[in-house]
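Q: Hi! First time doing this. I have a protein sequence and I read that you can turn it into a structure. Is that right? Here it is:
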Amino acid sequence: MGKFRVFLAEKLELQDKSVLAFAWITDFPMFEINEITGKVDFGHNPFSMPKG
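A: Yes, that's right. Below is the predicted 3D structure, encoded as structure tokens:
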């Protein structure tokens, strides 16, 4: 998906080649066991809801 994202950014001319931007992730996703399925699941997603 990363290559596809870069491809689309180039194709749609969304890139500003003069800018280099970094992102620092400080609240990584927490994992917990889903009580219904018993599988590992996200406790929260820092990209869509950093803090509940």
